[in-house]
Amino acid sequence: MVHQSEDQLFKYATKEDGFGLLKLLKESNANIKEIDFKSENLTYNPTELVELGPKIYKTDMILELDHLIVLTEFQSTIVKTIDEKRYRLYTALVDYVKRNNKPLILIVISTAEKTKIKQYKINKDCVFTIPIVSLKDFDGDKIINNIDNISDLDKIYSFISINERVLTSRIGDIFECFANKYRALDNNSKYIEALEKCFKSSIEYGFKYFTNVRMDILKILIENDYDKTMNYLLNTALDTIIAYPYQGKVFQQFIIQILLNYSKESLIKDCIKIYDNFHNEIIKEFTNLPDKEFSINYDWIKNYKSDNKNDDLLLDIIFNEWVDYPYYKRLEYTHLISDLAIIYPTIVIPKLFANINNESYTLLQLSALIINHLSIHNSNLLEQYEETIEELIKTLVHFEINYMLIDTLNHINSDRVNKLIKILYYSNNDTFSILLSEDSPSQTFNDKFMKYIPKAFTDYVTQVSEIILIPENIIYYEIEKFLVENNINYDLEIEKHQNLYETYCSRGSNKFIPFEDNYGNLVYHTLNIVLEKCLRNFGYGINQHKELHKILKIYDNRFYNKTITPNTKFIKAFPNENKILDWINFEDIQEKVKTIKLDDIDLDEINIIDDYKTSNDILFEQVNSYVAYDKNQALLYCNCENIFNITTTNIFYLHPLIHRKYKLEPFSDVPNYKNENGIQIKQELWQNGIEDTDMSFKFLAHGTKVTIKKELLKQILEKENCKLSIVKFIKRFYNPESYKKEEKKSNDIITTITIEL
């Protein structure tokens, strides 16, 4: 496409369908809703109105209707005084040369500012009014849903389609709304066409931000017309790889997802073509790198030949990227590899075990994590590796890795693991002797190492020290001894540390990409090594092992958030700027304490937990709940599960007394409870998108919902002769942008809802 300015593109578009533009303007701006744009005829730029004036005084577009003349100005910058003067001149010139008595109206169509009315004051008695309609962030959903006439819908759809690149950042959502409306009006061809546009917008800039790719819409398109969709998809993929070579780092995720969900023999061949193209393009990036770069990670890519029949090639790329520093990337790849291991066990699982002999403790631990996950859900896949796992447990000296492998073996053969544990931890085995002295770490260690360790990792040491009853200074002494024995150069680590922060942290901002800090990584893994030696020498009980695992685990082996879906019902509308103070002060919460009769709740399922965190650029809100069925007894207990140092997930468990008394059986990884009448207590984890830019990464909104069947709650209230109390702890925070001369504000509140018979 030839690059055009926004106003040129708009002019071209409105000539295609002026009525669509007028309909859009009317629906977008309450200030011009009363204007009647209905007309049998529409003339563009009537000749007699534009040829008589000087060329520099010609408005962008004039639409003459049967009863009205509409002057339109397309503005891609903020309207300033000079613009206001120019608009007034345009209007006066057109009024002067027109050959009829039709009234005039001027409308400014902007992509730079919000919808508003501006006034240019000529003097105190004469004011020129300028309506501005913003098409950048207009409420497309509302407009589209209010249209029941398919002719009007087609007009707006045509206008939006021609101008999709400049109209709005939400263009994908707008096309999805069009699709839903066309489906409601039984126009299947337009429904599919709009979905295609929606999917296309999700890969507008390639696959750099894989979380944006609308896989749900792609599924519909494939099911509608497999050949057409795949042809479009593969051609688009090839084009985007060439246009945006940087997205090659995540493109393989997309290909694998396609393979897993829609694989046909022909598709697999096409994917190989795409991979060859991907390789040829990415190799161009490597050609300009110093040779030493290749010795780190990419030798195999540098030497790869496109005719190589290596079945593991895509897998090699994925494993290479798996240990990249950003934690969110590791999370995505962990889920991807666990899926691949189930579908292609003969290829993936041997590679996971091979990685447990890798020099990188990060890769070693991640591989053990997935193997542990597989043992819970598909232990039969690991039965042939029973002896391998036992041998690894004997030879490895790393607490977390050993703990996960022991748990894995327990799911395969519990008798075998019991004997092994007894030998390793409760015998006089001194294979890994450790002599704990009263020495403290050196001053060099304190000056060059300790000052760079993130607090999260020093907390690990503190908590471990409390459980194993060994002073922190001794643990740090043993950490230093290990680092010295392994020739760790502090100066090189400091340089690496600074480079990582420069790469992943935004200067002058509190935004950053969570990443593996090299100093924290050294402390973490060395602590695990020192700890494992202590456990094998001093024989701590199983309870201590469990407590240590809770502290040091990087991700629960059940992968709670693997099934997280968006909560479409959760739309947190933050207040306008002029109402932020009211919001901070909880003016929107009228009752802090209230009582509700159970029979007054007209629902079969009652929501008793609705915890969440959500934020935008300057506002943050967090809700945490506590639920009790009498004054002293909690109904649900909450466990906070860490996920790769990115975020935490709250998992709720039912009180054992209620669990047993009402014969409720827990099931699924996220504890839900059922009886003979079906699901009684249901728990839902949700996440509403990710802000993923070059310099920031955060969950925009995520939370946990728990519902209980009304009938079960009634039984509990009757039999226990009690009330149900739902206590919510709500925190709100306002962090104004740096250029605003305002102070940060925060507040919190406690609310209580009591449900009684």
Describe the structure.
The longest helix has 23 residues, at about 265-285. It is built from 30 helices and 19 strands. The protein has about 750 residues and is of the alpha+beta class. The N and C termini lie far apart (about 65 Å). A hairpin with a 3-residue loop joins β10 and β11 (about 645-655). The strands form four sheets. A nine-stranded mixed beta sheet has the order 7-19-18-9-8-17-14-13-12. It has four domains: about 5-140, no CATH class; about 205-310; about 445-560, no CATH class; about 575-755, no CATH class. The model is unreliable at about 1-15, about 50-55, about 285-300, about 305-310 and about 430-435 (pLDDT under 50).
Summarize the structure.
Helix content is 48%, strand content 18%. By secondary structure, it is of the alpha+beta class.
